[in-house]
Amino acid sequence: MLRITTLATLLLLNFAIQASLLPHFSIMEVTPDTALVLIVSYAILRGEIEGGIFGFFAGLIQDALGGTVLGFYALLGFLLGYVCGKPFRDFFKDNYFLPFFVVLAACVVYQFVVYVTTVMFFAQADFWFYFRTILLPKTIYTASLSVPLYAFTYFVNSKLERLNDFV
């Protein structure tokens, strides 16, 4: 129960910071997607099932806060958490560079899927324009935050595992 409460608080705090504070630190009018980093980090640490569930709820909050179609980001978050957690079940969790590269790849795929499903269907946007102005800057900005956010998620996860050992 402590894990669920802590993760729910982490998600709500993340979206509060992402909505209120991070717009003041935008670069080229792009803000980082810290929820994506948290989903990938948690999936690497806990595996595909918990990563998928965490991604689902992160996406559901994102849908509630401003998604165009309810459930789109929830499905995308679930798939992201599941896929990113699948190959790293028996991986050395102290490696802080792995999340950087996984977040880099996940952000490119995530933004491409968002482009294909929303921008392309609702607006006649040029892909190279989208790539230059949104996908590339957002990917670089998000990946640059992956190491500190992974370190924080690793810290929270290790504390929760230690507390779970005492219960």
Q: Would you write up a description of this structure?
A:
The chain is mostly helical and 167 residues long. It has one domain. Helix content is 78%, strand content 0%. It contains seven helices and no strands. It has helices spanning 2-20, 34-46, 48-66, 72-85, 97-122, 127-144, 146-166. Helix 2 packs antiparallel against helix 3 (48-66), helix 2 packs across helix 4 (72-85) and helix 3 (48-66) runs antiparallel to helix 4 (72-85). The protein is globular. The termini are close together. The mean pLDDT is 88.
Q: What class do helices, strands and sheet pairing give?
A: mainly alpha
Order of helices and strands: HHHHHHH
User: Number of folding domains?
Assistant: 1
> Total number of helical segments?
7
- Choose one word for the global shape: globular
Termini separation:
11 Å
Radius of gyration: 16 Å
Could you report the average pLDDT, rounded to the nearest whole number? 88
Q: How many strands in all?
A: 0
- Extract low-pLDDT stretches: none
| Proportion in β-strands | under 5%
Please give the share of residues in helix: over 70%
Please outline the major beta sheet.
Answer: none
Helices and strands, with pairings:
Elements lengths: L1 H19 L13 H13 L1 H19 L5 H14 L11 H26 L4 H18 L1 H21 L1
Summarize the structure.
With 167 residues, the chain is mainly α. 78% of the residues lie in helices and 0% in strands. The protein has one domain.
Features of the shown structure:
78% helix; 7 helices; globular; mainly alpha; 167 residues
